[in-house]
Design a protein that fits this description.
This protein is an alpha/beta fold. The chain is built from 17 helices and 35 strands. The protein has 5 domains: about 350 residues, Rossmann fold; about 90 residues, 2-Layer Sandwich (Alpha-Beta Plaits); about 130 residues, Glucose Oxidase, domain 1; about 35 residues; about 110 residues, Immunoglobulin-like, CATH 2.60.40.
Length: about 750
């Protein structure tokens, strides 16, 4: 990796606006399909779970067992096989096309468990390493070997294999445990795995999404990167773990991802031996984890030591819009960077408004032009020749292709420029978009200022547009943008979701040159899709230093070391510049350097999760998700959600003390002493016992209890505090959330 250390160009990992904001997976509320499906003679795709064969058979025997469930007419078909995929790792089952009558027949066979209709999921960066404290050739990034020896698997739209981000200069050969294969245009020590799980589809990336996410997670260093080669955001691009290996499993096409293909990708990734899985895709809210094939498949991955990182979704800022709520997943929300593609509007009254422009004028003019705002034409639906020549139009942005086309037309017809202000929901979070015209985007608050100024005096309301290229150190940062999905979890009551915040607004990363988006090979898009691979890359760095850590230990390290303040030293803000809460940010904003040395971790095993599933779903849920005949709810202690050894604490806010227990493992110096430090509002009383934890060796475990009671909650639906275990070298922080019993997501006060 010496070549990495010699690079001195400033790091730049960028982000871009994806026209379809992506959601991390959530399965629609499916039950056994034969109960819900509308009877039809037409066949449709189903995912079928069956009991495993009695003997520990190989893949061929598994497939024969699966085929034994098929109706005779289907098994004998030769013109077109309707058996789409056979699964042995994610669970025992298969994907198949069936009519309702065929499904009814199959459901009566011994060994049949349940079936789900095959749903369609939707898809949900170059300055970010530096923003996250990763500097080339020094410190933690160098000590971690830039993720050397770790394999990141991505389930996405494929990737553009010959992009320079996937060059293997300085990257070591893959570890011998790697069992996968590569079927891309270029395979090397960087891109070691490439498979398409879409029948009849060649490997490649027609969308750009997979190229973007994979280069964000582990792209190699590329000098001179910029948005579409236009110099915007120019610098050296690199993924978060540029020394790690990439394995891409193509499971999406036409911006749609079939569950059956996603499961097939999970199946292959587990067999191949990936270390981290990154899923920047999702769907609608589910009713229960045992009705979600992806959550079930991801549990299999976690049980085999693979950390699964998933996007929180793009349905914010609505409360309860979070997806990927299963506690065995690491769920990522999106935040902003300290970078701006700066442009400003200088008004005739001497005031100046700062905004952003993805299209930067090479030779900007400071000439003033009249401002025009029309409530009737609020969304820039002007006609050519309607008094717009030589004027700067003020409009509300919609991010629609129709508005983009209108703006291009009216600027071409003589308008001097357009200022687009955010809608009220977007607030201060601006997703930059390329209008290929003189367009500046500003906040909703500045839009109000401009409307008032334009109406003050038609003859004197003038302004000029100034372009300032790329600015760094913009404050405050991070800010949670409007689209990032919010908690609380409706399904995992007692578990704080999202887990963590990471860069996801206006991220620049690799892009295929043939997608029609422009002439360059880097693009800027936004979404929790972009935040997810940042955390996947951080997980790879930690795994490189601590190869024996479990997925839960890595997750704990990331959560308990996160930042809870922004670049000004104040609280992290939301899109309205209000203080962001735990349901916006999770534990806080990811801090890679501290996460590699957390001091203590909250670990969880398959048995712990199984006890939780027994409490939540009983034996049927255990059999569906865990699929381990040696584990039964009769033999396992039922673990209430609030008692799960999670690195965050969520309880019911009651006047009677509510007590939970947690166990921490020392992963720091052998002889360490940690003292409890509680931060809580006056209306929340938190007591910790014992108040001091002493460790004499690494790997030693200590258990403590936390009692929480509230008084004078008023109209608040929840209260926030924290518990930090503080030693000479470490601060291990866990958010505490006390939820009002009036709320729908309040934990049971008597677990």
């Amino acid at each position: 990796m010496a070549s990495f250390r010699n690079l001195s160009v400033p790091l730049l990992l960028l982000t871009i606006l994806f026209p379809m904001l992506a959601l991390c997976y959530i399965n629609p509320a499916a039950t056994s399909v034969h109960q819900n499906a509308t009877k039809s003679s037409a066949s449709r795709a189903y995912i079928v779970l069956v009991e495993p064969p009695r003997s520990n058979a190989g893949e061929d025997a598994h497939r024969q067992w699966h085929e034994s469930f098929l109706p005779t007419s289907l098994a004998d078909e030769s013109s077109e096989s309707r058996l789409l995929h056979s699964y042995t790792e994610v669970f025992s089952g298969f994907a198949v096309r069936l009519t309702d009558a065929e499904l009814d027949t199959m459901a009566k066979k011994p060994g049949f468990v349940r079936a789900f209709p095959d749903r369609t999921l939707q898809l949900m960066t170059t300055h970010t390493p530096e923003f996250l404290g990763l500097k080339n050739g020094t410190g933690f990034w160098s000590r971690a070997g830039y993720g050397k020896g770790v394999i990141i698997g991505l389930l996405d739209t494929g990737l553009y294999a010959t992009h320079p981000s996937f060059d293997d200069h300085g990257v070591s050969p893959p570890p011998t445990r790697w069992k996968g294969s590569c079927k891309a245009a270029r395979c090397n020590n960087k891109l070691i795995g490439a498979k398409s799980l879409i029948q009849g589809d060649e490997f490649g990336d027609e969308e750009g999404h997979g190229t973007h996410t994979s280069s964000t997670a582990a792209g190699n260093f590329v000098t001179g990167a910029s948005y579409h080669g236009a110099g915007v955001g120019k610098g050296t691009a690199a993924g978060i773990a540029p020394g790690a290996h990439i394995a891409m499993y193509k499971v999406c096409a036409n911006r749609r991802c079939k569950q059956s293909a996603v499961l097939a990708g999970l199946e292959e990734a587990i067999k191949d031996g990936v270390d981290v899985l990154s899923l920047s895709l999702g769907g609608d809210t589910i009713a229960s984890f045992d009705e979600d094939p992806i959550a079930i498949g991801a549990f299999s991955a976690v049980s085999k030591g693979i950390l699964v990182v998933c996007a929180a979704g793009n349905s914010g800022p609505r409360p309860g819009s979070i997806t990927n709520e299963a506690p065995w997943l690491l769920t990522v929300a999106a935040g902003s960077l300290d970078r701006s593609f700066a442009a400003s509007l200088h008004l005739g009254n001497g005031k100046s408004i700062d905004g952003e422009a993805l299209t930067q004028k090479v030779s900007p003019s400071s000439k003033s032009h009249p401002l025009l705002y029309s409530e009737e034409r609020r969304y820039c639906n002007y006609k050519s020749g309607s008094g717009i020549t030589g004027k700067i139009l003020v409009c509300e942005g919609t991010r629609s292709k129709t508005q983009q086309s209108n703006i291009h037309r009216i600027v071409g017809a003589g308008a001097a420029g357009v200022v687009l202000f955010n809608d009220e929901i977007s607030g201060y979070s601006t997703m930059v978009q390329d209008y290929n015209s003189s367009v500046v985007q500003v906040s909703a608050a500045d839009g109000d200022v401009l409307i008032a100024y334009a109406a003050s005096s038609e003859s004197s309301s003038v302004a000029s547009l100034i372009y300032n290229n790329t600015l760094f150190g913009v404050r405050p940062a991070p800010v949670v943008p409007f689209f990032s999905s919010r908690g609380p979890s409706i399904i995992a009551v007692g578990i704080l979701k999202p887990d963590i915040l990471a860069p996801g607004l206006n991220i620049l990363a690799a892009w295929p040159p043939s997608t029609g988006s422009g002439r360059g090979t880097f693009n800027i898009i936004s979404g929790t899709s972009m935040a997810t691979p940042h955390v996947s890359g951080v997980a790879a760095l930690i795994k490189s230093i601590h190869p024996d850590w479990s997925p839960a230990a890595i997750k704990s390290a990331i959560l308990t070391t996160s930042d809870i303040v922004n670049s000004t030293g104040g609280s992290i803000l939301d899109e309205q510049h209000r203080k962001a809460g735990v349901y916006d940010t999770g534990a806080g904003h990811v801090n890679p350097t501290r996460a590699a040395d957390p001091g203590l971790v909250y670990d969880l095993s398959v048995t712990d999760y199984a006890g939780y599933i027994c409490w939540l779903l009983g034996d049927s849920g255990l059999a569906t998700i865990v699929r381990n005949s040696s584990l039964t709810c009769a033999k396992l202690p039922k673990v209430h959600a609030v008692q799960l050894n999670y690195p965050t604490i969520t309880v019911s806010a009651t006047s009677t003390p509510f007590t939970v227990k947690r166990t921490v493992t020392n992963v720091g110096p052998a002889n360490s002493t940690f003292t409890a430090k509680v931060d809580a509002p006056r209306s929340l009383t938190v007591r910790v016992s014992p108040e001091t934890l002493g460790f004499s060796k690494t790997g030693e475990k200590k258990t403590f209890s936390v009692s929480v009671s509230s008084h004078g909650l008023g109209e608040e639906l929840h209260l926030e505090g924290s518990l930090s275990w503080v030693s000479e070298k470490h601060v291990v922080r866990s958010p505490i959330v006390a939820v009002s019993p009036r709320g729908d997501t309040a934990p049971d006060p008597s677990p």
